[in-house]
Every structure is written in structure tokens, then in C-alpha cells.
Amino acid sequence: MARWAAAGVRAHLVLTSRGGDAPGAKDLHRELAELAPVTIAACDVADADDLAAVLAAIPADEPLTAVVHAAGITQPEIPVADLTPDVLAPILRVKVDGARNLDALTADLPLDAFVLFSSGAGTWGDSGKGGYAAANAHLDALAHQRRSQGRTATSVAWGAWGGGGMVEGEVADLLTRRGVRLMRPDAAVRALAVAVGEEPAVAAASVDLSRFLPLYTMTRPRRLVDQLWAGTADRDGGAAPEAGPATGENPSRRGWPASPPRSRRRR
Ligand SMILES: NC(=O)c1ccc[n+]([C@@H]2O[C@H](COP(=O)([O-])OP(=O)(O)OC[C@H]3O[C@@H](n4cnc5c(N)ncnc54)[C@H](OP(=O)(O)O)[C@@H]3O)[C@@H](O)[C@H]2O)c1
Q: Could you tell me the sign of the dihedral formed by the alpha carbons of 136, 138, 141, 142, in that order?
């Protein structure tokens, strides 16, 4: 994201994390500084005073024009019924409190973009990640709220990024088996550039539907899948998916057997 902004926008970048000295930060600083001015600062985004200090240090003649909230932590795999406040609080803190602080402390600035890194966990779900899902769903809701107030906001629920980060190793293998493929970072950032200015909350993912759909619709109908189908029907010239039997059938699968092979594949 920072590489894209440095090369494309060439504005002053302020990159933050709690430590400020994440592995590779110095090399990244050197690399980006050839393209744009860069400041790397230690800041806990969930701590309003900490964040206010970083914002106050931004020079008045180079005012803040865009915010990207990508800070986050994931959660250990725990069923919703076993979630405790101890587990939930840190997840909500960084994502939700962090976003709320950014929202409040930049309220008077005419921002061009306010981007929230959300997750497919909050859109289509992820087993054992109920708390993380809720935190991300909050970001999507915040984006809707800001837009309804006439302010800029884009929440992007990502599938999975390649190139390291939260999704690597066993997590990446598991998601890939479930049909959520790793996106190349340059492709993900291009998707983000398109998303800003579109709907307040969007999802961007590379999905192998032949793996994803059967797992996803195995236990119950899913509204998201029905909506995807409706979109397909629109592209097919308005043909609605065929209705299934009145009871007993998973509506998400309606129309598959009856549709011609090419249309089935596209669906
Ligand atoms: N990677 C993916 O495929 C994927 C998929 C869906 C959604 N997302 C979302 O995208 C965002 C970025 O993911 P990623 O893979 O880049 O994660 P990552 O590699 O784990 O990086 C997260 C960053 O957040 C920082 N951070 C954590 N708590 C913070 C706090 N309180 N204040 C400031 N910074 C904090 C961490 O640095 P410190 O520890 O030094 O603070 C770290 O640099 C996350 O919000 C994640 O939920 C990622």
C-alpha cells in the first residue's frame, strides 16, 4: 500500500505501528524516500492521545488528505460461544477503537479518502473467528455511517493477500483449500484504487468458486451467494435463477442442474 502511494501519489507518507520499527521498516523507508517524503512513527492507533500527537505533527502546509487504517490483529480460533472479553477486547480495540479514533480526530479535515482494511471474515465468515469478524463488520458499518453523513469512506473486506502478513503459512494453506486464493499485492492495491469512490463497503478477493461455494453453502442458504446469482442473472439478460422446490433444498444451489454448462460455469 505504501509503495503504491509513494509511486503513484508522491505525497508525504506517515506510516505507523505500535513499535514504529517493524522488521524491514528501515529498508522500506529508504526505498520509499526516493519517491516521496516518508515519516515512520510509533503510534498505538487505539490510543487517542498517541494518535492525536502523530496527527498534530503533520505540517500545516502539507495537510492530511487520506487515511488508511490497516492496523489489526487476528484472533486464535475459538467458537463464538467460548469467546471471552479477554480474547475479544484486544481485537476490537485495534480495529474498532482505532477506526473510531481516526474518524473522530480527522472529523474537521476535508479528506480525499478514508480507507478501512476490513476482512471477508466479516462479510462471508471464517470459522473460529467470530470476534475478528465482528470487528471487521464494524468497519464496514462505520464506512456506511460516514458516507451517510456526506463524508468519504471506503471499507474493503479483503479475501487474502499474498506477500506476507496476517495470511501466510498454515493460515494461507487453509484459506486456499477453502477457495480463498492469495491475491498479488499489486493486484489488491489496484482493486483498492478502483474501490475508493464506489460503494462504501466492498469486498475484494480472489476466489476459486468451485471450492468456496460448496463449503460455504453446505449447511445453510447464504444471502451473499443469492446476491451473486442475481448479479449473474442481470448479466445474462435478466433471467432470474430458477426456483427450486418449496422446501428442503438449499436455495443457493437452485438452478445449477438446470442451467446450460457454460452459464453454470459462469455462475
Ligand atoms: N493479510 C490479509 O490477507 C488480510 C485479509 C483480510 C484482512 N486483512 C486486514 O488488513 C490489515 C493488514 O493486514 P496485514 O496482513 O498487513 O497484517 P499484519 O502483517 O499483521 O500487520 C498488522 C500491522 O498492524 C500493526 N498494529 C497492530 N496493532 C496496532 C495498534 N494498536 N496501533 C497501530 N498499529 C498496530 C502491527 O504493528 P505493531 O505490532 O508494531 O503495532 C502491524 O504492523 C489488518 O487490519 C487485517 O485485519 C488482511
A: negative
Q: What is the pLDDT of residues 157-205, one digit of tens each?
A: 999 999 999 999 999 999 999 999 999 999 999 999 999 988 999 999 9
Angle between helices 85-92 and 130-148 (to 10 degrees): 40
> Strand 180-181 and strand 206-207: pairing?
antiparallel
Evaluate the CA torsion angle 216, 217, 219, 222 in order and state its sign.
positive
Determine the angle formed by the axes of helices 98-105 and 48-56, rounding to 10 degrees: 40
| Residue 255 clears pLDDT 90, i.e. is over it | no
Give the closest residue (by CA) to ligand 1 atom 43: 17
Q: Is the CB of 122 under 6 A from ligand 1?
A: no
Same-domain check for residues 203 and 228: no
Domain region containing 250: 223-266
From 17, 96, 102, 129, give the residue whose CB has the most ligand 1 atoms within 8 Å, as the site to mutate: 17
Report if residue 5 sits inside a domain: no
Decide whether any atom of ligand 1 lies within 6 Å of the 161 Cβ. yes
Residues recorded for the chain: 267
Task: Please say whether the beta carbons of 51 and 101 come within 8 A.
Answer: yes
The rounded Å distance from CA 136 to ligand 1 centre is 12
pTM over 0.70: yes
- Three-state DSSP class for 211? helix
Give 98-114 pLDDT, tens digit per residue: 999 999 999 999 999 99
51 and 140 in a single domain? The answer is yes
